Amino acid sequence: MHCGAGCPGDLITGSDQPIETLGDMKAAAAALHKLGCQAVLIKGGHLAQQQQLLQQQQQSSAAAAIEATDILYDGQRFYYYAAPYIRTDNTHGTGCTLAAAIATALAHGQSPVEAVQSAKDYLTTVLAGSKGLGLGAGPQHPFHHGAGFSRVDPILNPKAPVLLNPSPKAPKTPDGLNPVDLRMYVVTDSGCNKRAGKTLLQAVQGAVAGGATVVQLREKDIDGGDFVREATAVIQLCRPLEIPVIINDRVDVAIACDADGVHVGQSDIPTRLVRQMLGPDKIVGVSTKTPAEAAKAAADGADYVGVGAVFPTSTKDSSVVGLEGLRATCAIGIPAVAIGGVGAHNAAEVLGSGVQGLAVVSAVFAAPDVEVATRKLREAVDLALQQRGQQQQQQQQCFEHVVQAAVVA
Questions:
Q1: Are strands 2-4 and 304-307 parallel, antiparallel or unpaired?
Q2: Which terminus of the chain is less hemmed in, N or C, by CB atoms within 10 Å?
């Protein structure tokens, strides 16, 4: 039997004492064991203490690392299972998955103590692997059981190390696309970096610290060898954090440094050839202005499109598509990110068009503090997506009520 710490104690033990500490967890495990269980596992991921520490950590980068500790009691002794607390909203289904993994390990002949450890290792790995995925804006945020980690089976081979892939290959979406969290898409600019006196890596470090979910390296005035070296340094920073690094235009550079993907424009190498060169598991993005261009990009193998410029911008000479053009492209169905004159001030209306995120250049890299600018924009994007999800949920509920009323009538 397994239960989660943080739930009211009377739901599982008949006591009115909430489970808020490791001591409470031990007491609950002992009480449950008296009911006739062979062993009892109390999950500790939702302890109130950890939630408080998590809030403090969000306010201070110097806060100590948090661990999630589970407790197993077999009637004779307590066993403690500690692992890093993975900060993510994608946690729906973790309890059921842990129980299923324990059952699988037991079926393979492991003892309860060994089975819990194997399942705990598996759960921690998949939570870390799926923490950055965009899994919808609704109230539920399920984690992904196979995102971003190697196919080592900790149950069948518990001594094997569970490592992130050199280049994560997350399972494709139901539409056959490589999943990309487009919420906070930053595009580097050598001019901004030069004026700020920063290297490419320093600029990206600030954006990543502020919450960037995708980094595109757009370096037009650099030799191929230097580009590979600088891109490799950025990838070494981003890959452990599971933030994809996309190379603008240069397929050769992307292949040389094992980047996560390539973004091309309408006048660059055709999308179909880029897909053939990169293979099926790399991310391919395409700049578009019209629904027809987006539809062609999707047919040729793109995973997402960048649409814009939505509003006038000084970064790049480009015609404006406006919000109506943005909505028309989103109706095609391929994931889209808006670029051109977008920022925290208009995030709500832009994201209301149906795009998955904002792509920015100067809004981040021309700011005095890249990290602060990125964080401010990321907060605005997340809030706008949350509000959009709530509106969609309300619309769905209204539709269901209308259908029910019609059936009754």
A1: unpaired
A2: C
80 — pLDDT class (breaks 50, 70, 90): confident
Confidence (pTM): 0.59
Cα 125 from Cα 142, distance rounded (Å): 15
> CA–CA distance from 67 to each of 82, 164, 169, 217 (Å)?
6, 20, 27, 35
Residue 226 CB contacts under 8 Å (≥ 6 apart), including other chains: none
Name the residues annotated as catalytic: 218, 287, 316
DSSP one-letter string for 295-309:
HHHHHTT-SEEEE--
Q: What stretches of 11-125 adopt beta strand conformation (E)?
A: 40-43, 67-73, 78-84
| Predicted pLDDT at 267 | 94
Look over the chain and give the mean of its residue pLDDT values, rounded to a whole number.
81
Angle at 9 between CA 4 and CA 13, to 5 degrees: 100
Nearest C-alpha neighbor of 187 from the set 148, 158, 213, 160: 213
